[in-house]
Amino acid sequence: MARCTAPRYGHRTASGRAACPACGGSYSGYRGYSNYDYNSYSSRSNYSSGSSGGGRSSGSSRSVKPRWSRAGSSVFYTSSEVQTLTPIRETFESRVTVPDLRDIFLCHAWDDRQGSAKELYDLLVSKGVSVWFSEKDVSLGQPLMRAIDKGLANSRIGLVLVTPAFLLRLPKEGIADKELSALLHRNQLVPIVHNTTYEALREVSPLLGSRSGLDTAEESMSDIAAKLAELVAFEPSCENP
Question: What number of CA atoms fall less than 13 Å from residue 143's CA on the CB side?
Answer without folding.
Answer: 4
